[in-house]
Write a structure and sequence with these properties.
The chain is mainly beta. It is built from two helices and 13 strands. The protein has a five-stranded antiparallel beta sheet with strand order 1-10-6-13-2, with helices on one face. The chain has a four-stranded antiparallel beta sheet with strand order 3-11-8-9, with no helix packed on it.
Length: 158
């Protein structure tokens, strides 16, 4: 897992919050300069040829119920990783674009060797992690929240 401090400015986060694409997947990583900048930064930081075309996508998400523990590009059965519905996904990422003053809860956690690790100060911070069964997949969750919380999620093939 790679954490990138200040991948966004507050002004960029506010601009993304205004987009009318909440919960709608977009395969277009090129036309929005902020999305392009983030994707390019992830490509450089991972050193991988991330795909910026379908099936890769980004989405702005507001999900008060959160997400239980999961992997993005695989699942675990009987102690082994197997493909899931997003088996094409090599990397997943998350950036909190809402100021934490506007919600409670919504904490992001990752598991490493059965230890739960809270991502501190997730606001404006990029977090990218392996998602595929053969790419050191990282189990993660987001706790339920109340208030206005929005996250930019990106999922990349490679």
């Amino acid at each position: 897992m790679i954490q990138i401090q200040n991948i966004l400015s507050e002004a960029e986060a506010k601009e993304l919050q205004q987009l009318k694409t909440v919960s709608k997947r977009s395969h277009d990583f090129e036309s929005n300069p902020i999305i392009k900048k983030i994707a390019d930064t992830y490509r450089v930081m991972t050193g991988q040829p991330l795909k910026f075309t379908e099936p890769s996508y980004w989405v702005l998400e507001t999900k008060p119920a959160g997400h239980d523990w999961h992997y993005d590009g695989c699942k675990e059965e009987n102690g082994q990783f197997i493909d899931n519905h997003m088996s094409w996904c090599r990397y997943g990422s998350s950036i909190l674009i809402s100021d934490p003053e506007h919600f409670t809860g919504g904490d992001l956690y990752y598991k490493q060797e059965d230890e739960e690790i809270k991502v501190e100060d997730h606001y404006l911070k990029g977090v990218i992690y392996g998602a595929a069964k053969d790419n050191n997949p990282v189990m993660h969750k987001a706790t339920p929240h109340k208030g206005k919380r929005k996250v930019l999620l990106m999922f990349f093939g490679a």
